[in-house]
Task: structure prediction
Amino acid sequence: MAKADTPEGGPKGGAKKKAAKKPPVRTYERPRGGEARSIADLVPEIGRTAFRKFGFVQSSVVSRWREIVGDRLADVTQPAMIRFPAGQKAGGTLHLTISGAHAPMLQHVAPDIIAAVNRFFGYAAIATVRMTHGQVVPAAPVQPPAMLKPVPAELGDSLRDIGDPELRTVLERMAAGLASAPKLPKIS
Result:
């Protein structure tokens, strides 16, 4: 083999031809994470991870406990965790923290609590309830904000037929917002 030959079989001058070619232009890609996301989109994911660590599949069980079981039971109980059998999402055990001497009463209403939670999930997620004594701080009842402007009469009549109070309130607010004159944002 001659020293002038390169491993590719050509003369030494072939290397200069390769150096003359420019590499293809790459488009800019963001290094990690894709598009920018707002904090409001990230917070539920962070909360979901924390709740799962402590045994909650759905964080809404904690945040909506008062709606699920009612005011009377929500004042003396607090969900601690939900444990499911390995590999299943049904037939789980709801662990409740209860305050004071409410255990005998809660043993009698445990089937009602199970039914309410299963109704919330939409399937038989909970099969048993385990109770532990502890300190329960009752959460303040959630009161909807007062309407600032009255709803126009022609819209108010058509919304009275809606049975769901939350939906009716949202539609009234939307109608009031559409009826009012648009305001420029205040910059300070």
